[in-house]
Write a structure and sequence with these properties.
Blueprint lengths: L2 H17 L8 H10 E2 L1 H6 L36 H4 L7 E4 L4 E4 L4 H27 L2 H23 L14 H4 L4 E2 L7 E5 L2 E7 L1 E2 L4 E2 L5 E3 L4 E3 L4 E3 L4 E3 L4 H26 L1 H4 L8 H7 L1 H13 L1 H15 L4 H12 L15 H11 L27 E2 L3
Parallel strand pairs: 4-13
Antiparallel strand pairs: 1-2, 2-3, 5-6, 7-8, 9-10, 11-12
Bound molecules: zinc ion (2 copies).
């Protein structure tokens, strides 16, 4: 028995040991939690049977020593597995919730912090201010605040857990990869290709992603945090813990806008509460220090609102500028860097419609999220190439 078959035997034995943990015998509550509520493909992999070998490399082939093409498909007991349950690329850093409908990056979950920052002031408002404002000022203020707060959290969740426009993997594989198992791609796969654009002599550039094995459409790029290519990639937002791209940019914009409005409402309403004694003649409160003693949470919320409004306002202004020019954050940064270095290949914005109104409309209202290209909650079709694990291609020149 040579080394490879000894290793295979070892792997097979380990797989059998693992498969002794039968998920069918799990209590329903555990199955509900691990199969549906929260799913971490990396953890599930430990308890599944050893993967079948779909593409085997010939160990005699000099190009195949790294065992570059490894199957990820597990021998599924149930034909009704969903895509998110079989997705086991090494570097897919997600945890899935609600049957693959929600997705979050595992590393540094700053979105939890953002959620707390959004929820805490609202709870303080409803517990300590809402009733007073309703009675002494106007019920409308409480309702308007609650409405904008709900919009803010809804846009935040939608932008944070939805698909930003992830492009499917393994769509453009060099033909040699299956036939001979060669893991090198032709050199043109590593060049930036310029294709003509109808309204410009500059054209648009496309590039092959050697990790996702696709020719990226114009404006797409590979996010190193999410380890995937995203269509019309704007940036990876650490506060959302998600990429912002084609499918969720509109929600991100409206999250910024409603967050700023909600912060301003908190400041205004809390301010009214603190200084209400000056607006009425029959108040028993005579001084501002007396009023603050009576409404300490209002003062706290004024300070909180003033601090919290700064960051989203600055970001909102930047994105108003970007959307008015129909630019993504990445394109803008490329333009700035290229311009400062007088780079002849610097980014030129061919996507500007030369109408601010049209640019704003397209980004804030007009853009539809469209269909997700990698729907994790769909039933897995055996052999679906999008979910196979293929190592990054290498150039002959490297
Ligand atoms: Zn990619
Ligand atoms: Zn990302």
């Amino acid at each position: 028995m040579n080394t490879t078959s000894a290793e295979d035997e070892n792997v097979r034995r380990k797989g059998q040991e693992r498969s002794n943990i039968d998920r069918n015998t799990m209590p329903w509550i555990h199955k509900f939690i691990t199969n549906w509520l929260v799913t971490d493909p990396a953890v599930i992999e430990k308890y599944e049977k050893e993967p079948d070998r779909v593409y085997r490399n010939d160990s005699n082939d000099s190009y195949n020593r790294n065992d570059n093409i490894t199957p990820i498909r597990t021998r599924v007991r149930h034909s009704q597995k969903r895509n998110y349950q079989v997705q086991k690329h090494d570097n897919i850093p997600y945890v899935y919730l609600f049957g693959g409908r929600w997705r979050a990056v595992k590393k540094r979950p700053m979105n939890i912090m953002t959620t707390i920052l959004i929820i805490v002031p609202a709870v303080l408002f409803w517990v300590f201010e809402a009733k007073w404002v309703w009675r002494h000022v106007s019920p409308a203020l409480t309702i308007i605040f609650s409405y904008f707060w709900l919009l803010t959290i809804s846009f935040f969740i939608t932008a944070g857990v939805s698909d930003p426009g992830i492009l499917p993997r393994n769509i453009h594989l060099p033909s040699s990869i299956r036939g001979s198992g060669i893991n090198h791609a032709p050199d043109e796969y590593f060049n930036t290709v310029t294709i003509p654009y109808h309204s410009s002599e500059n054209g648009v550039t496309v590039k092959y992603c050697s990790t996702c094995h696709i020719w990226r459409p114009p404006r797409a790029s590979h996010c190193s945090v999410c380890n995937c290519c995203v269509a019309i990639h704007d940036h990876h937002c650490i506060w959302l813990n998600n990429c912002v791209g084609w499918r969720n940019y509109k929600y991100f914009l409206w999250f910024l806008a409603t967050a700023v409005i909600t912060c301003l409402l908190v400041i205004i309403i809390s301010f009214i509460e603190v200084f209400h004694y000056r607006l009425v003649t029959d108040s028993v409160i005579q001084t501002s220090s007396q009023s603050i003693r009576d409404h300490p949470i209002s003062l706290l919320l004024v300070i909180y609102g003033c601090l919290a409004v700064i960051y989203p306002s600055l970001l909102l202004m930047l994105h108003l500028f970007l959307t008015a020019n129909n630019l993504t954050t990445r394109e803008y940064l490329n333009y700035i860097y290229g311009h400062s270095k007088k780079d002849p290949n610097r980014f030129i914005n061919v996507f500007d419609t030369h109408s601010i109104v049209q640019n704003l409309y397209m980004n804030w209202i007009g853009r539809t999220p469209g269909y997700t290209l990698v729907k994790q909650s769909d039933i897995y079709q055996p052999g679906d190439v999008r979910f196979q694990r293929i190592e990054p291609l290498q150039s002959y020149q490297k």
